[in-house]
Amino acid sequence: xxxxxxxxxxxxxxxxxxxxxxxxxxxxxxxxxxxxxxxxxxxxxxxxxxxxxxxxxxxxxxxxxxxxxxxxxxxxxxxxxxxxxxxxxxxxxxxxxxxxxxxxxxxxxxxxxxxxxxxxxxxxxxxxxxxxxxxxxxxxxxxxxxxxxxxxxxxxxxxxxxxxxxxxxxxxxxxxxxxxxxxxxxxxxxxxxxxxxxxxxxxxxxxxxxxxxxxxxxxxxxxxxxxxxxxxxxxxxxxxxxxxxxxxxxxxxxxxxxxxxxxxxxxxxxxxxxx
Length: 275
Fold this sequence. Notes:
single chain, Lyase 2-enoyl-coa Hydratase, Chain  A, domain 2, six-stranded mixed β-sheet, three-stranded mixed β-sheet
């Protein structure tokens, strides 16, 4: 699958997770519940390719990612990833770590906002998937842990040292990344990792509802908001203000901007079409 070719989300049939459409919302469900939905070499790559391909479709306006069987994702599969990694050359290891990093890059660069529905175990690379999403709904039983030090690795994996402090603060992120400790659902909510808590039986439904609400909005403008939220991490305030002036001026050239004005004049609700 290549983002250079028009991506058909209705015909897409992944091998390593579930995918379906709820209107204009694409739903990803990691589906190895007997192992708490771990990732493999193949599922990392397939998720990366999907998020890349989403840039080439207007049929999907928001994405939900969840896990089956009461857990989100337990991270890299011990037997299918960690074991084989101990036998790889330095070159092979760098190829793997760059590929996993590319998954996060593809999530951040795809124009669709991503909502993570986090229940149960959310660990290692699973915690990274949640972290890299734009919104996170959790459940009271959700437990989030960046476990890399538990397997003798650094906490600096897949952008964690850059993104996590921006979400929960430097000190809290440092403690989680150094110790591999677990962030409870209450802590995740208080610290801003979760947007809100939802009962387990409702979390996927609520995540889809939030994604549908986003999908009803101005798609081009939402993509611009996502782009600027990411880009402005690197900018001083004055430069960010200038960049936002340019971004907003571009959005003011869209037909959606004109639709909103016409709807306001007619005292109607605008119907955005993403152009």
